[in-house]
Amino acid sequence: MALSGSVMGFVLSFAVVTIATYVSTSVLTSGSSIGYSIFTAGLTSLVWFGVTYLVSGTIGVSGYWVALGPLLAVVAYFLTVDLLYEGSLVRAVGISAGTWSVTFAILFAAAYMGYSSFQALGVPPGIVAG
Fold it and tell me: What is this structure's pTM?
């Protein structure tokens, strides 16, 4: 039962981030598609996890340096979005902020109605839950 719950959580979380990415890119870019939003959500999730794990998990920073992993992950997240969508780094930050805002709204509504916890895969947790 725990594995199926984890798989369901992953799928729903991924769907929320994909929808949020699609909405954000629809507003801020001329060419937005659900397929490319799925790709973006997956890649940014991997980048976020990979950088955070590499810096905080593998290198094993501690003390004040523990914030280095998430900080570098946010920078890598912005750079990944910048590579995927044409425009400037400012547009990438806008797309990311839009994605986080839409994700926040969806998760807040779902948590308010008692349907989910207040977190999503591929969106920096401190930003959504904070």
Answer: 0.78
